[in-house]
Amino acid sequence: MIRLCEYRDKEVIHQIINDAAQAYEGVIPYDMYHEPYMTMEDLNHEMNEGVMFWGLEENNELLGVMGIQDKGEVSLIRHAYVKTSQRKGGIGTKLLNHLINLTDKPILIGTWESAEWAINFYLKNGFKLISHEEKGELLHRFWNVSERQIETSVVLCDRKWDSNK
């Protein structure tokens, strides 16, 4: 079952994100990886900024989470993570499809340039890489990330964004 996560889920969301983010160690730039990958303070900030987390739950256990954030003219997919023990089971695809169906707005997704598995996941699900030139403008406009993160990230878009131009 996919459901909207609540305040009481914060600790589990935090655990899932930090468990799954271990895959970044040694892959993303060394100066961008730290443990925990997301602090509880950062998670609270994201939720206060309007990131709505949805989770896939089986037997009363959240197995994966994914956030969506309304940014006016677009929606951002944020913080897509599946427990390491549950990967490759379709959880990410189910969550992504659910979030896509929540909005009529164009969808943008940012991820690490070196996280090839994440990029391939979004490409497989119908998203397209944005040009390097447009990437920087979009990351400045819709995200609040460091210049270093902008240098080392990519942005993907859905068909609605592509046809919106």
Automatic annotation (TrEMBL):
Domain N-acetyltransferase per the UniProt entry, residue ranges: 1-149
Signal sequence, renumbered to the chain: none
The name this protein goes by in its record: GNAT family N-acetyltransferase
One Pfam family this sequence matches: Acetyltransf_10
PANTHER family on file: PEPTIDYL-LYSINE N-ACETYLTRANSFERASE YJAB
Stored InterPro entries: Acyl_CoA_acyltransferase (IPR016181), GNAT_dom (IPR000182)
Taxon lineage: Bacteria, Bacillati, Bacillota, Bacilli, Bacillales
Keyword entries, A-Z: Acyltransferase, Transferase
